[in-house]
Design brief:
Helix content: over 70%
Strand content: under 5%
Oligomer: single chain
Shape: globular
Length: 255
């Protein structure tokens, strides 16, 4: 794959009066986004996302992704439950509970609707084998949720919220002329909205506050958590496109 260099500027002066916007990020958010830029932009250009936006993605690949994402969402909800248990700020506790409920209710309904249309049963959904790449992702965020503090947890869940909000928004704009005929329109519609973006805004605001007095070493640790999350997002889609369960295709055997 050819490397994609973003033309986005991450070194501007944040305008606090405008609030956090897609092109108006506070300083630490800019640092995180800049650090992840290469994999972020390559992620948007990878075949799974391009073909999803074009509406040409094979149904089998999308079904593989949905089944893995169904498993992922359950672990994502667990991470928020652990964050709820660790949080002392009532506002953070309320957010963790809201996202946990949303993950288990709203997003899983999208999965169920799509998968039912593909003839995939509830039993198949509940017993799907987790790919090595999905397991690496969920194991990482769960280990952070169990072993780290609330700031680490907020940073660990940010890539999922922010990447989806960005890609959904960009796909809707890029493929606006053909989206009505796209079989994956409801997926794009779900993630393109300002309502979905607001979860990222909330996370960015609270991370910015919590990191204000952190040391430079601590900030680098958090940036590493964020970039790793964006890398895992990339691999999640890449492995779905290849329908790959294990690190090497030749290891892919029934278990």
């Amino acid at each position: 794959m050819t490397a994609v260099t973003s033309t986005t500027n991450f070194d501007y002066e944040f305008d606090a009066d405008k609030g956090i916007q897609r092109n108006n990020l506070p300083p630490f958010a800019q640092r995180m986004r800049k650090a992840a830029d290469l994999v972020w932009e390559e992620g948007y250009q990878q075949p799974f996302i391009r073909e999803l936006g074009e509406g040409t993605l094979q149904r089998e690949r999308f079904a593989f992704y949905l089944l893995q994402d169904f498993r992922y969402v359950n672990d994502y909800a667990r991470v928020h439950a652990l964050g709820l248990a660790k949080a002392t700020d009532p506002e953070i506790m309320a957010f963790m509970l809201k996202v946990q409920n949303g993950a288990l209710q709203v997003e899983t309904e999208v999965h169920r609707s799509y998968l039912a249309s593909y003839g995939i049963t509830e039993e198949q959904m509940n017993n799907v084998r987790q790919s090595a790449f999905a397991r690496a992702y969920t194991s990482n965020i769960l280990s952070i949720a169990y072993g780290k503090d609330i700031l680490d947890i907020l940073v660990a869940v940010l890539p999922c919220a922010w990447v989806y909000a960005d890609y959904g928004y960009r796909l809707a704009a890029e493929f606006a002329d053909t989206l009505d005929d796209n079989p994956y329109k409801s997926w794009v519609d779900m993630y393109k909205t300002d309502e979905f973006w607001q979860d990222s805004v909330w996370l960015l605001e609270h991370i910015e506050k919590l990191v204000a007095d952190a040391s430079e070493e601590r900030k680098r640790e958090l940036i590493d958590i964020f970039v790793t999350g964006v890398e895992n997002e990339y691999m999640f889609w890449a492995s779905a496109y290849d329908m790959q369960y294990t690190w090497k295709p030749e290891w892919n055997q029934e278990r």
